[in-house]
Amino acid sequence: MLITAVFDASEQTYGYRRVRAEPARCGVGVGVELVRHLMRELDLVACQPRQFRLGLTVQDANQPAVADLVSRGFTATAPAPS
Fold this sequence. Notes:
mainly alpha; 34% helix; elongated
């Protein structure tokens, strides 16, 4: 089936709108509701990959700690007055 082939070619990331657009580019007219209905019937659910997110850098234990060049004290002796 054309819908399954397009869906698998997209590595199962295309939703019904993009699946419908692929055959339309080739000149095969398919309705949005038909594609949506067939994808639901075939249990084709699009899965978008998660975005790559950078994690926190772990400091190397062999390196010295970063020097405090500002020398500011960030400890409070008492709560701030309101």
